[in-house]
Amino acid sequence: MSATLTRTWRQVAARVREQRDYGEGFRWLELDVPADFAAPVPGQFVQLLLDPPSPVLLPRPMSVAAAVKRGSRLTLGFLYAPVGTGTRALAQLEPGASLWVTGPLGCGYPLERPGTAVLVAGGRGVAPLLMAADALARQRRACEFVFGARTRALLIGLADARERLAKRGGRLHVATDDGSRGFRGDVVQLLDSLAPGLAKPLVIHACGPHGMLGAIARWALANRAEAWLAMESVMACGTGVCRGCPLPRSAEARDRVIARGADAAALQGNPEFAMCCTDGPVFEAHDLDWDRVE
Ligand SMILES: Cc1cc2nc3c(=O)[nH]c(=O)nc-3n(C[C@H](O)[C@H](O)[C@H](O)COP(=O)(O)OP(=O)(O)OC[C@H]3O[C@@H](n4cnc5c(N)ncnc54)[C@H](O)[C@@H]3O)c2cc1C
Ligand code: FES
């Protein structure tokens, strides 16, 4: 099963509308792009390319955390951590600065899947999932929102999450490993304790560190729940060309690719690997070999 590839991408000139601290070293960035840029769906990403002179040659992938139409512009929001050369340079951009945005890229969450929507966020994964909660509310569907971190300081934007979910009929469940806020334990343990009280089938949409996503995938596979996981990889092109963002396919996903025939295999390269940028970044739990995901 693969997630929904919704629209085609293009590259546009963008301007910084706002950039501010979001706490715990994270940044909130808003970029204005032309209104005819296709509105990304939750789970999709864009490539951000800095104007020259830039310390990095390649664009950097970033999940879209908000998309709001404003007259002749579309404003895209991002929650990010300045971790290296490119993202630190991004953090220096002032309102009015220009850069390039390519997107929307990849497959978003299939929010139309029937069942109880359970959104599971770890750390900065909260941002795209709040966008998903907004999209579900527009379909008049509530969600169970499970938000976890090691400790309460790392529940980034918790107050914002609480306020937005309250307005949209979503139920927030918080977990910290050290018990400093909410349930003591990780999001999978919290999910396990919540699941008996939720109407089936469960459709999990998750974003966070790969270790957390692997644990959710294993839980979903063992409990016959559907789970859609937003993965990351170091990327160059973001469009399926460079074959530089491989993730290990499960045996069943590999066999599906092989069954499509020699032409498909030639087009898609080594059937052992999915490309994070075009086959994902949102993958269903059955699609990847979680023992080999790093
Ligand atoms: C689909 C997708 C969505 C993403 N969404 C977000 C987001 O919403 N917010 C956010 O803060 N970051 C996000 N990232 C990660 C972000 O792209 C990287 O942090 C960024 O590319 C690092 O660039 P840099 O030049 O600052 O770091 P570099 O100087 O290139 O590298 C610094 C360190 O970060 C590591 N790194 C680089 N890329 C990644 C990656 N993709 N995953 C893990 N480690 C990486 C490098 O190995 C190195 O150790 C996303 C990545 C992908 C693939
Ligand atoms: S980043 Fe080039 S194929 Fe995925």
Give a quick rundown of the structure.
The protein is α/β, with parallel strands linked by helices and 294 residues long. The chain is built from 7 helices and 16 strands.
Strand content: 25-35%
**Principal-axes shape call:** globular
Q: Which consecutive residue ranges, at least 5 long each, have pLDDT under 50?
A: none
List cofactors, ions and other ligands. Answer: flavin-adenine dinucleotide, FE2/S2 (inorganic) cluster
Radius of gyration: 19 Å
Tell me about the biggest sheet?
7 strands, antiparallel
Span of the ends, CA to CA: 21 Å
Decide which structural class fits the backbone: alpha/beta
Please give a structural write-up.
There is one protein chain. The protein has seven helices and 16 strands. It has helices spanning 85-91, 126-138, 158-168, 187-194, 210-222, 251-259, 262-268; strands at residues 10-23, 26-34, 45-50, 60-63, 66-70, 73-80, 98-105, 116-122, 144-149, 171-176, 183-184, 202-207, 226-230, 246-248, 273-275, 282-284. Strands 4-3-7-1-2-6-5 form a seven-stranded antiparallel β-sheet. Strands 11-10-9-8-12-13-16 form a seven-stranded mixed β-sheet, with helices on both faces. Helix 2 (126-138) runs parallel beside helix 3. Flavin-adenine dinucleotide binds at residues 45, 56, 60-63, 78-81, 83-87, 124, 232-235, 281.
